[in-house]
Amino acid sequence: MNMLRRFLLCLWSMAILAAAAAVGVCAFRPAEMEYILSRLFNLLTGAQYFWWLLLGAFILLICGMLGVFVSLARKSALPQVVIGKSEGGQVNICLVAVDNVVQKAAFSVEGVREVKSRLKAAKNGVSVKLQIALPHDINVPETSTEVQNAVKEQLQTITGLAVAEVAVLVTNVTGKAVKPVKEHAAI
Hints:
Layout: H1 3-28, H2 30-45, H3 50-72, E1 80-86, E2 89-94, H4 95-107, E3 114-122, E4 125-135, H5 140-159, E5 163-174, E6 181-186
Helix pairs in contact: 1-2, 1-3, 4-5
């Protein structure tokens, strides 16, 4: 849900809460109900508030339509990439599945302690960005190149995807053994 929809849904929720509070007060204090209804009547019939009321009605209408739309909307599909096309159709793979291959390939390189990956479907295949942590006693450029090659090879072998890019960023060089941490994000 984008930011505008969240904002409108929040406005709608606040309007419902305000109406519920007014009804709750009226249930316990009938005298307050007469006051609220008289003020509301004066507000609705006063010409000076016409444009403000029209604006409020428009906002409530939009928020109401948003509520209906959100309640009936389907969940978005998982991000995916086309693996192949034929006369019978096409074959897709979810980026989550691709990310699993990336994670296993990166951890298959000796010394890799932590991997965070971000995948993006590109016109010419898939783009992979990795953040890795390595131990202090390992050759960083050599290991990074090994990670790039392992990820690219595994993706091409297992999924058949063309790999546009494998960017590696070494975020930490640790001096002690750290348990491998797997984190991923598909874009």
